[in-house]
Amino acid sequence: MAESAGPDPAVVLAELVGGERVASDPDTLARFSRDHWPLAILLEGAGRPADRPACVVRPRHAGDVAAVLRWASETGVWVIPYGGGSGVCGGAGGVRGAVVLDLRSLGRILEPDRDALLVRAEAGVLWADLERQLTERGFTTGHYPQSIDLATVGGLVATGSSGQFSTGYGSIEDRVAGLEVVLADGTVLDLPDRAPRRAVGPELMRLFIGSEGVLGVITAASLRVLPLPASRSVYSHAFPRWEAGVEAIRRVLQAGWRPVLTRLYDPLDAARSFPEHAPPGRAVMLWASEGPAERVRAEREAVDALSRDLGATELGPDPVVHWLEHRNDVQLWYDALAMGVLVDTIEVAANWGRVDALYAAVRAAIEGVAGVFYVACHASHAYPQGTSLYFTLAARPAEPDPDGIETLYYGVWEAAMEACVAAGGTISHHHGVGRVRRRWVAAELGPGLDVLRRVKQVLDPRGILNPGVLLP
Ligand SMILES: Cc1cc2nc3c(=O)[nH]c(=O)nc-3n(C[C@H](O)[C@H](O)[C@H](O)COP(=O)(O)OP(=O)(O)OC[C@H]3O[C@@H](n4cnc5c(N)ncnc54)[C@H](O)[C@@H]3O)c2cc1C
User: d(Cα 367, Cα 281) in Å, to the nearest integer?
Assistant: First the structure.
């Protein structure tokens, strides 16, 4: 099983799905050879581009996907499901001779079901387009990843994504009510949304949320929507210490409040993100409350009081307003990568009681890697049980060549992952495993890894789907 040794996949697939739906020109192959993985971007800049696929197929519907997968399972040719290509862990691309499924071609959105608060969208719909369409009709998904303009419905489900307002609205698993998935043998599996919950064996949908394209190709999803909130209040605080801000989030959530946004910046991240608002040396906390006006008012008063108890001072709405305006602007990230500087983000998570230790350990581990010159952190997805920590780092390779880049990149990740495992955290909160975290999946899952492998073996016996991703 590998790159096709037989007839040209582009020729065979053109017969299966139509010539106009198959591309193999050099520009298309280059475009689909990688996602937003910082390592792949840096290596490309240093003259070592990612391996090219054999061709790119743009299916019209689940039937086309089924035809491609059936053929691939017979021939053993690898298939890469490709959504928006905004993944940052190397989950889409980089496999020589593979067939890429460009799922952006599955782009239909149905009218929302206003009674049940559901909307069905095909896998290739950009989440921003879905949100726009829903907003016009008075609804929202409540799911706002920073990559909302880049990422697709299928990709966000396949990576187990989390949005910026996840503390209030939950993550992608809370949005998914039904899925259509095509399996490697061409079976179209319809996991319907006919009731809000069911107890008919394990919930099979869950198997595909976070499966990173290795168990099946998601072709459509039914998603839970919400009426647009009646009111919103945004507010912020400066905390004397990061740990006090962490404690404030815990107390707020464990008291039963659910601000949609809880976003705590450590002093370094605060100084970079809010140069005009952040008092020097303080941690800055952004909050937003949404819903009926009475609840929003009560929540804000409670959060203010709990924060003051921990020594916080009020900073007003401006930092949140500033963040809301600039939250998805990552041009600096692209600029730095283009200059050969590694800028990356590593998100981990832990239960309360281990959060402070996880923060200290991962931070120190990354700082200890030669070449690293910046490490900052914010806590942005919180639960009554714990929180995620999102580290941003910048580093320069000792040598700007591919070997120097790889040494730096893997040095940073090894340090961060080992520290995370030792501190009892989970190795990814929402970016997934891709290629970069594979080595630590065994430490995370234990014997569960073998269960996952056996599931993979049953659903995809020839291993055609997304080789090298998720499973070590
Ligand atoms: C600037 C920036 C900001 C980001 N912010 C966030 C954030 O706030 N929250 C967050 O969760 N993530 C974030 N990410 C990461 C990324 O956007 C997510 O991982 C997203 O879910 C990827 O969606 P995509 O459509 O781009 O998928 P791709 O990158 O194309 O693919 C991601 C993985 O899913 C698989 N896949 C894609 N589509 C399907 C499908 N239909 N069926 C089966 N498998 C599929 C691919 O094979 C690959 O393994 C960010 C990335 C960037 C670059």
Answer: 19
Supply the CATH classification number for the domain 231-326: 3.30.70.3450
Residue 1 has pLDDT above 50, yes or no: no
Cα of first residue to Cα of last residue in the chain, in angstroms, is 17
Q: What is the CATH number of domain 331-429?
A: 3.30.300.330
Residue 218 beta carbon below 6 angstroms from any ligand 1 atom: yes
pTM summary value: 0.97
The DSSP code sequence of 237-298 is EEESSHHHHHHHHHHHHHTT---SEEEEE-HHHHHHH-TTTPPTT-EEEEEEEEESHHHHHH
Residue 418: Cβ within 10 Å count: 17
Return the pLDDT at 178: 98
Hey, where are the domains in the chain?
9-105, 118-227, 231-326, 331-429
Q: Which residue has the tokens 């780092």?
A: 393
Q: Rounded distance, CA 449 to CA 446, Å?
A: 6
Q: Is the Cβ atom of 72 under 6 angstroms away from ligand 1?
A: no
Q: Looking at ligand 1, which atom is closest to the CA of residue 171? A: 11
Distance of alpha carbon 290 from alpha carbon 420, whole angstroms = 33
Q: Which atom of ligand 1 is nearest to the CA of 89?
A: 19
Whether 90 lines ligand 1, by a CB cut-off of 6 Å, is no
Tens digits of residue pLDDT in 180-234: 999 999 999 999 899 999 999 999 999 999 999 999 999 999 999 999 999 999 9
Closest approach atom of ligand 1 to CA 162:
11
**118-227 placed in CATH 3.30.420.10:** no
**CA-CA distance, 218 to 123, in Å (whole number)?**
6
How much of the chain is helix, strand and coil, in % rounded to 5?
A: 40, 20, 40
